[in-house]
Prior knowledge:
Blueprint: H1 9-36, E1 38-39, E2 50-51, E3 60-62, H2 87-96, E4 102-107, E5 131-141, E6 150-163
Parallel strand pairs: 4-6
Antiparallel strand pairs: 1-2, 3-5, 5-6
InterPro entries: Macro_dom-like
Amino acid sequence: MVRLQRNxxxxxxxxxxxxxxxxxxxxxAPLSALRNGYYCPSGRDPTVRxxxxxxxxxxxxxxxxxxxxxxxxxxxRTSVSVIKQDCLLAALNMKERGLRPVVLIxxxxxxxxxxxxxxxxxxxxxxxxxxxxxxxxxIFRDSEDSGYVFRQVPFTVDFVAVAxxxxxx
Length: 169
């Protein structure tokens, strides 16, 4: 591990490059698993394979005009919690309590940041007050704190990608 001293920009740069390299390496294994359609969970017999199911539904672009009517259900109170936890683990905890969370992805209003050179994506640009809803994404890696190990038991969660609104007056 690189030991950092105050104002040691070179050491900080090396540490950042090292961390970037680790994240790239961690990213390659899931890409391979997705191509293969399965993965071998960490700490298990490598002949044990867990299938990665194809998405059950496609992503759906929405805008304020396409939203369904608001619920007429009445609630006594709204509870908001801020916790220091990986968002996917927080979503899993909510699912285990019988809730159906949706994980927010703060996206770019203009660019598909996953592949900014791909001009064939029909979902971009996102409408000014719109977003992209993607249900039932399979999560098969654990958090950064665990070293991104492959999960023994995968789970699914929904995502919504919306751009942060700029120029608020």
